[in-house]
Each structure stands twice: as C-alpha cells, then as structure tokens.
C-alpha cells in the first residue's frame, strides 16, 4: 500500500508539473474590444473614423509566441464587421481568419469571440477590418508577437520598442469611397499620409542607445519609403523571418508589408525627421514625425530628407538584398535554414496574372480573367456543411486563358502537404502587392517581362526569406514557393484594398479528405451562421 500511495503521489506531481508547464508556456489572454464610430482629424479636417475601444488607431496587441488569445469583438457600427489578423497563420484554424470566405460578418450590435494562437510565430504584424472599405476609416492596429523567454533572438534587447503604422489616407468617408468603386470607377489619389493615425508624432530615446522600430504599411494602395534623418537602419526581421542584418538609409514598404529595424541614436543630441513618402506616384505625398533625443535642445531643422530618386529598379535591387538568416532561429529553437526549401521539387506551378478589365461597363480587377464576387455564404461554411451552389473547384484555371473576363467565386483546389510554385505575373503598368492568409512563403525570384520556365535559372534557392506579402513590379513577375501544411480555406488577395474589393482575389482550398483534428480544428461552437448556412445547427 505504501508503494501504491507513493506511486499515486508521484503521478499527481507529474500531472501537476505537466499542467503547470502547459499553462506557463501557453497562457490565455482575454480581451474585449468594441468597434464604434468617432470623430478625428487625421489630416486636419474632422471626419468620421472607426475606433476600437475609443482609439484610433486601435489598441496595440502585444503577444508572445503560442499564447491563446480570446478576443470578444463587439460591433457597434451600422454595418457588419470582421477583423482579420494580417500574417497570423491561424494554424489548423481558418475558422478564425476573419475574412468573408471563412466567417460570417458580425451584425451591428452583435459580438463574436475570436479564439486563436500565434503558433510558432514571432514578428511584427497588424490587424484591420476586412469588410467593405472599413479599412479606409480605421479599425486597424499593431499586432506584435514576441519570442518566448527561452528562445534567443539574433540581436541585443533594444532599449525601447516603437510601432509605426504608415499608410495613405483619404478625407472622403469609407462609404463614399465604396460608392465610387461600386459605380465602376477607380479611387482617386489619396489626400495624404499618416504615421500612427496622425500627421506628426514624436518618438523619444536616449543618446547612445538602440531602439526597435516596427514599420507596417496599413494604407490602401500606395508603396511608402521610410527613412530617419541622419541615421542608419539595420533590418532584423521581416514578417516573422529573421534576416541578414544589412544597413539601409531608407526602405520601401509595400502595401500590407511589415518589417523591424534597429536604430542606434548615435548622432549629436537634437531632433531628427522621421519621414514617410509615397513611391512611384507623380505627386509625392510626405508625412513627417520626430525622433527626439532626451538631451536635445534643438528642434528639427533643415530640409526634409528626400527619398530615392530612382524608381522601380532601385526598389527591385533593394528587395534582392533581403536574405534569410540561415543560422538564426525564429519562434522555434532550430535554425531557419534547417528547412532546405530549394531542394524540394514543386508538385505543380500556378501562374496568376492580374488585370484591370471592364466587366458590364464597370471597372473591375481580376485574376486569370476571373473577378471575384462574394457569395452570401462563406466558403468555409459551405465546404463544412456540404452546401451546394456556393462555389465550384473549376471556377478558375491555374494559368491565364484567352477567355473573356467575367465575375465568379474563384476557388483554387489544392491538397494538404503539396509544395507549390506560384508565379504572380503583372502585365499592368502599376505596382502590385499580393498576400496569402494562413501561410508565409519563400520569395524566390523577381524578374521583368513575362515569366517562362527559363526564369527559374535566376531563383534564389538558398536563402530567400519567408513572408506573407510580396510586391510585384510593373510589367514584371514574382515567384514564390509555399508548403501547404495548413489545412483550410485561405484568402490569396491583392493587398491593395481597392483592387481586392473589386475582385483581385481568390481562395486556396487546402484539403485532405480524411477528417482529423491533427490537421484541422472543428467548427467553433460560437461560429456565426449566415446565407445558406443560417438555418443549420452546429453538430
């Protein structure tokens, strides 16, 4: 009996220890956010904006790898609303992605409780409304994922950590902008640029110390160049990837992209301009903030530092300097370079060409000739409940065709554990930015003109970085590799929100016919049901 009692005691201790470790490593964090309208003057003129808990931009969400997030979003707007967590992979959990292909929007005066986890992720990210053009009114914010205490990072802990949301902005309301698009016209040129929702902010630091600046482009349609007067910027992280730590005088941040730089305050004690300006635009919009040394007695002075003069070639050459740090870890202890992506033969190639056709006399944007339209039933619900008539798996081809552009609900079929080569072909004379939910991907090549199989000779198969959003230059192509290890229904879209709104998006259905919780979580018990799923019940 004594030995049996001792055995029970030891088992109890082990169970307690195991539970304690789980709780210590994967704690739960609870948030309640309320979305409302409010008044602000981002460009000096009062206008209606979207507030989260009374804040514009919304609250900064600082998380740690693998934390469980339970976030109750209450919608007090006059329209249905969803927030999406840009760059959070939602492992096995596209139910929480917060886009119209996976979730019913939250009706006014209703709520939805998001439950998600930044599983095996670190880095600088954002959240924003995915519904309508709500993003043009605010509702966006910072989402940072910090490494667990037991995981080293490849730089000394900075003295401070600043997050900067940069983006173009309109004085026109989001509803008026939506009417412009719905009428078949393109959006006008933006009215200005914002840094953290303002025309000017101040960031303060001590001379001689090093600070982290996390930069995200949350605008609608414009690439932005970022720079700090008199200071070098050391790039250390891009959308969850630790990179070779090169120094830059300025950096192009395309729509939807995020990055982290280290800046050492190694100049004489005074104030310096922080500058954001538009790229590849005839009219250059500029917004300035201030880097203030705590021992400064001198305000900013002199001309605002100019951005790069060269257009696309300068930006392309800079993009090619961003390389994966193969010996550094990210969220996990193993080195990033331990996954030899370049030695894997893709199972197939998908070639996606964007275009700007007129369909039924109205401006639309398309992928392989298909301009996406949202069904009233989220694709994920239709797939789960086997609801017919919502989408088909032959709605879009995996390469451009000569067919006339038309409207459809475009879904690309794929299988779990496929390894894809995807080429974004941009035959237009405008900049493009593409984002994939649920994944990051290796950006293996940029090139001008039309992609061919011979273009593969120029691929970087050794140290291309992984990220969730990549640019495609005018009359050019960008190639990526992606390992489909995350089952679900995932939005592949233009990050330029007017193009996304008017159809430049598809969904990637990553499927395994054998249902298993090892591959994908069950439908949440609190999932909102709408469209053809409205009358159904959860199993």
From TrEMBL:
Residues 1-24 form the signal peptide. CDD domains: CuRO_1_AAO_like_1. Pfam families: Cu-oxidase, Cu-oxidase_2, Cu-oxidase_3. Keywords: Glycoprotein, Signal. SUPFAM superfamilies: Cupredoxins (SSF49503). Residues 35-148, 162-295, 376-513 form the Plastocyanin-like domain. Gene3D superfamilies: Cupredoxins - blue copper proteins. It comes from the Eukaryota. InterPro entries: Cu-oxidase-like_N, Cu-oxidase_2nd, Cu-oxidase_C, Cu-oxidase_fam, Cupredoxin, CuRO_1_AAO-like. Belongs to the multicopper oxidase family. This is Multicopper oxidase. It comes from Solanum tuberosum.
